[in-house]
Description:
5-stranded parallel beta sheet; 5-stranded mixed beta sheet; 12 helices; 50% helix
Amino acid sequence: xxILVLGAGGVGGYFGGRLIEKGEDVTFLVRxxxxxxLEEKGLIIRSLHGDFSFQPNLITTxxxxxxxxxxxxxxxxxxxxxxxxxxxxxxxxxxxxIPLLNGIAHLNPLKLAxxxxxxxxxxxxxxxxxxxxxxxxxxxxxxxxxxxxFLGKETDRIRRITAVFNGTKADxxxxxxxxxxxxxxxxFITVMSGVTSLMRAPxxxxxxxxxxxxxxxxxxxxxNNIMRAYSxxxxxxxxxxxxxxxxxxxxxxxxxxxxxMEKGSQVEGDHLQGYLLELAKxxxxxxxxxxxxxxxIKVYQKMKQDRFKQDNTKSEHxxx
Length: 320
């Protein structure tokens, strides 16, 4: 099967690279600058599971359209609208879209754009980033991509996809309860990214500070209650399970949202904490901790916007 990976960043570069390492037919849809960088240096993966470097097949939106069997949607949520436009020429009637975005809010836009039958469920667990040289650096043991048909259907196409994904150095796992898995991941990443970005610290110091675990658990409970108000298919003991996962994380583990803040990049707060707060407001539910977490993100976004305006003003003055 022909696979198109949207982007060659930390997530797409890693999972796409592992499929190429196995011998699968993978192409990366990238921006012109990233294409130039990869043509010059190749795509390099530095990982606990083994390093791998190769010269990838690359296309941009300017290249002639061709149809792919699978598209891994490994973009950030704030790029979703443009990414849908970029991908459309490469989607045929039988193309399967597998989204790897955090959260839930992206599902409806994808289904509206490509049709409900062509979008299946997906998520990933991985700590990865691009270093200053554009290399994919994967820094923890977890490197898992979960996918599956909605409603747990067992179809011919999911069997073919599973066969393609099997046998790599990453864990590609077919799920019969992908909706539940996506909501569970949404709950976990909302809290994990929320507390680490709020405290400006890895999970270890937060978890082990006085009152740290209590704060984490209370935020889990708030988010859990909102999701249950919308009949999300989550397990009864999910908060306990997620607290055990928090305890098992490495002391220096950071969320991707926190890392993006540290770089001064855009963040996914609107897609994660913001979307969940919208759901809470529709049910007139209180979520004080989640509001504080989201306010922190909005302050960061405001400061980033102000810096952008200041830089533009300085540029205008210099050009006069």
